[in-house]
Amino acid sequence: MSKNFRIAIVGIGLVGRRHADAIRALRHVDLVAVVDPSDEGRGYAVEHGVACYETLEDLFANQSPDGVVLATPTTLHVDQGLACVRQGCPVLVEKPIAVEAIAALELVQEAEKSNVPLMVGHHRRHNPLIKSAKEAISDGKIGDVRAVHASCWFYKPDDYFDAAPWRKKPGAGPISVNLVHDVDLLRYLAGEVVSVQAQSTSSQRGYDNEDVAGALLTFEGGAIGTISVSDSIVAPWSWEMTSREYPIYPSTTESSYMIGGSHGSLSVPDLRLWSYHSGQRDWWTPISSTALKKGASDPLVNQLRHFVEVARHETMPLVSGREGLRTLQVIEAIQNSCRTGEVVRIDCLQQSSKAKVTAI
């Protein structure tokens, strides 16, 4: 590298600080500024010896960073992303890319038209566990994917909601806040989702959103998926508690995803591959498992390293703006189906099309 890559972080809260930690873990990458109008933001900038600005406009008036990380509330992503794109500045925007797919489409299309790199922070795709699972499926080790199941069950304490009352409001339930991660991984591992039928139940704690939801997904290749989420179930079956990805969560030996194929099945993240080694497929034949090779590295650091390469036009993004948009469409479809009780079809987006989610 001829020079260090200079990154500014917009929003230096919990997630923004994790990105800052990832930047410090990389050689030849520097955090040069934060954009945050709060006292905490200014204090962080002073502590770490970087500039602090109140707005993106102030940042671009004073500096020309090589890339920007948007770790701000979802409602701000599109406007802030467009501001970066119009400055020609590559941008990594935290998931979900936007509140609504129709708004995300404007950002995606402008970035594509301007040839400005746009990535979405679905960092789990950068976990070596997911890389191994993806390779096994792509190499045909389980045959054709026929069914998938994902559990996203955990119990958030009351003070989690009391600390940020917006988490009790409509649109801040576990479908949008948590399930977006799992939907993205299922799309990555099993292909595009073409239709959804879903149900949800109101919060048992009396909040204005759901606390349990489940969905039946139909994939483009013919596979059927089931997925459920709750932030009010005591259980060990969630990515947070099975992947060992983030040390603040206590780990279990369980898995949260099962992917069933015509010649074998795979559980994730323990990466157990189940098959008939005799080659004879029938339920009277003993079935056994082997463990796929597991790597271990911080997916946020991997994602930042990849962002630098994408910003320099050295590689294509693993999670482009359009990929983030497609995941958001599935989340919207689940929410719409929960509200209407109908099967919702998801139309694939093209460069010049409008975002469409239609009921059947």
Description of the structure:
- The protein contains 11 helices and 16 strands.
- It is of the alpha/beta class and 360 residues long.
- The strands form 2 sheets. Strands 14-13-12-11-7-10-9-8-15-16 form a 10-stranded mixed sheet, covered by helices on one side. It has a 6-stranded parallel sheet with strand order 3-2-1-4-5-6, with helices on both faces.
- The longest helix is centred in the C-terminal third of the chain and has 20 residues, at 321-340.
- Mean pLDDT is 93; it is low at 349-355.
What percent of residues are in strands?
Answer: 15-25%
* N to C succession of SSEs: EHEHEHEHEHEHEHHEEEHEEEEHHEE
How large is the radius of gyration?
21 Å
Give the spatial strand order of the biggest sheet: 14-13-12-11-7-10-9-8-15-16
Number of helices: 11
Give a count of the beta strands, DSSP E runs of length 2 or more: 16
Distance between the termini: 52 Å
Low-confidence stretches: 349-355
Shape: globular
Task: List the topology elements.
Blueprint: E1 5-10, H1 14-24, E2 29-35, H2 39-48, E3 51-53, H3 56-62, E4 67-70, H4 77-86, E5 91-94, H5 101-114, E6 118-121, H6 128-138, E7 145-153, H7 158-162, H8 174-190, E8 193-202, E9 210-219, E10 224-230, H9 239-242, E11 257-261, E12 265-268, E13 272-275, E14 288-291, H10 299-311, H11 321-340, E15 344-346, E16 357-359
Parallel strand pairs: 1-2, 1-4, 2-3, 4-5, 5-6, 7-10
Antiparallel strand pairs: 7-11, 8-9, 8-15, 9-10, 11-12, 12-13, 13-14, 15-16
Helix pairs in contact: 1-10, 4-5, 5-11, 6-8, 8-11
